[in-house]
Amino acid sequence: MNAGAHRAKADAIEQSLARCTTADYETVIEACMLAGTHWFNVALHATELLPVDHDAMHAEFLTVGQRRRIACVLPAALAALDAIESLRTPYVRGDLPGGARAAERALDSLAELKRAAMHASAR
């Protein structure tokens, strides 16, 4: 998928996300994961770390070599996507208390991913 398609999908997800509050933490975390992955791919394609015909689905599924290259060029984006992924199991699939705070962290990480994508695209 090209960067424009990723950007359009991320924007559409963020429009839906705007209807939620942090009390809807499961939805917020999942939406941040979806939109964040699209922003991550925008950044990866803009920096040519991944070709347009190869998208990253989850940071945890990247090869060791891919993670190392991405960590050198887009460290904040990789950390942000890892942060959102780490919230999914305990708060979306689990029942850990503090879901609203986890949603805030996911939103902060999503904002970081979007910043990274915009910065990478501006190069």
Written account of the structure:
The chain has helices spanning 3-17, 25-46, 64-73, 75-93, 99-122. The two termini are 20 Å apart. The relative contact order is 0.19. With 123 residues, it is mainly α. The radius of gyration is 14 Å and the shape is globular. It has one domain.
Which consecutive residue ranges, at least 5 long each, have pLDDT under 50?
Answer: none
What structural category do the secondary elements indicate? mainly alpha
- Kindly state the number of beta strands: 0
**How much beta, percentage-wise?**
under 5%
- Element pattern in H and E: HHHHH
**Through-space gap between termini:** 20 Å
Mean pLDDT over the full residue set: 96
Q: What is the C-alpha radius of gyration, as a whole number of Å?
A: 14 Å
What helical percentage do the residues reach? over 70%
Q: Mind describing the biggest β-sheet?
A: none
